[in-house]
Amino acid sequence: MTDAVLTFADIRQTFPAPGDGAPTRVLDGIDFAVGRGEFVAVIGPSGCGKSTLLQMAAGLLAPTGGEVRHRGRRIAGVNRAVGFVPQQAKLFPWKTLAENVELPLLLRGIGPAERRDRVGAALRAVGLDGFEGHYPGQLSGGMQKRGSIARTLIYEPDVILMDEPFGALDAQTRMVMQDDLQALSRAAGATIVFITHDITEAVVLADRVVVLSQRPSRVLADVAIDLPRPRDVFEPFRNPGFDAAYDAVWSRFRTQIGLPSRGPRVREPAP
Amino acid sequence: MTDLAPSTAAQAPAPRRTIRGYAARLVPLLPGLALIAFWQWASGRLVREVYVSKPTAVAARLYELFATGEIVPHLWTTAQELVLGYAIGVAGGVAAGYALGRSPRLARVFEPYVMAFYGVPKIALAPLFIIWFGIGPGSKIALSAIMVFFLVFYNVYTGVRAVDREIVDLTLVMGANQRQLTRHVYLPAAAPFVMLGMRLAIPYSVIGVIVGEFTSATQGLGLFIHVASSTYDPAGVFAGIAILLAFVLGAGFLAARLERRLLRWRTLSGVGPSEI
Ligand SMILES: Nc1ncnc2c1ncn2[C@@H]1O[C@H](COP(=O)(O)OP(=O)(O)OP(=O)(O)O)[C@@H](O)[C@H]1O
Ligand SMILES: [Mg+2]
Prior knowledge:
The structure holds 2 protein chains of 2 kinds. Chain A has helices at about 50-55, 95-105, 110-125, 140-155, 170-190, 200-205, 240-255; strands at about 5-15, 25-35, 40-45, 65-70, 75, 80-85, 160-165, 190-195, 210, 220-225. Chain A is an alpha/beta fold. Chain A has 2 domains: about 1-80 and about 160-165 and about 185-270, P-loop containing nucleotide triphosphate hydrolases (Rossmann fold, 3-Layer(aba) Sandwich), CATH 3.40.50.300; about 90-155, no CATH class. Chain A has a 6-stranded mixed β-sheet with strand order 6-7-8-3-9-10, sandwiched between helices. In chain A, strands 2-1-4-5 form a 4-stranded antiparallel β-sheet, with helices on one face. In chain B, helix 5 crosses helix 13 and helix 6 (about 70-100) crosses helix 12 (about 220-230). Chain B is mainly alpha-helical. At the A-B interface, strand 6 and helix 2 of A face helix 10, helix 11 and helix 14 of B.
């Protein structure tokens, strides 16, 4: 634990209900830490508070109980040492791709020559060189997503927070992006917290998978994934040890889903 | 001559295309021309000319007004009132809309008042404004400014409030301070709404000024039209209206040009409203 970059310590969160209803307890004592250079995936049922946890790590929301620590210091106020990749790419529609990717450097007061070099390198790294002058509306969904990732990688944040970054992509693009992310994060030695619904994605990408329970949620399991790298994201089942790792996560996760009513449509997929 | 021929031939397609392009642009003029032709024909046949004048008479009157310089002082007065009223209204609307849009606390206090005044028919204020600001340009500027203000205010306020919260948060995490947030997020996000408000406000500024001049004035196009209509000079009325029309169209054209230039990203992305 001494090497922890990001620590969630007994996080509790209650949201007031609209009107006079009883407040919603969302997080109920979340404890886990993310080590330097570690890739941690967080999975949990919809609405269990995964996005809420990332908001706290970014300093955009103060937990009602407990604290998030970044390199030992309690986060109070916007945390500029992290990078945030949201589910939708959220590029600035009024800026060209190059201007989008350049913005964090501009905001941090980095000079024009260095900015130009780093924008060039960042766009090459995600395979978008040649599209500098395009506006986001002129790019495909996958390209926008790459842009969004480049915009985060470019300032080399201490921790990268990703909230279901590939959720909205088609299956092929998604696998390509997963492969790229694996390569980029290994090259950069980045520390990543990665939220996903997809167990395969979690297992194939992460060093550890944190499984959250239904609301009010707690950490149900914290599973280390010791598959050798680089991993094959295109045919995950070919990675030696994948099945066992998948089972370890699924056996904990299955207890949390498929429970809510609406009987006839719920079917348990075979692992 | 002979060696020029091939190059002329090679260039032929391009001019043809532009000619067709111009022709396409002229199509919207056809209904207007048809209306003018019908007006010319009907005047004196279906309706007595003393009621509706006729296009040739209006054109002659326009020429006369400019040739003798009779219209110039009126034009000058009205133009000044328009420009000032519009500018004050836009500046006030943008500033107030932006401030209330950015600050929920200010909005909580002032929004109900602004919305209440928004519902007041501003034209009803014309006589009051004459009392407060005199029969000179002041009252017309005030009337036009207040009409423009509400329109621009409402658009800008809505625009600033609609800024994507997630983009704001992202920008903060990327390292933006409040000033940078304004420059890189709020202003560009609000710009389409500012432009829309500015464009919609053009005719309102004209209405404000003309109503003011109708009510009471010593000079101005509104007064000119008023006098023309009370002295049975329909050609004069239509000439005055034609000048106003030209002004509104010209200003609208400039605004659309400015909008296209400033909001290039919207047209390029194909996400712009269809009318720009
Ligand atoms: N600002 C808020 N006010 C009130 N309730 C909120 C707020 N933000 C989140 N919640 C509630 O907290 C719960 C968790 O939300 P959160 O977005 O963190 O879920 P999630 O785990 O990311 O879900 P998903 O996987 O569907 O994205 C939800 O029940 C939501 O209604
Ligand atoms: Mg979420």
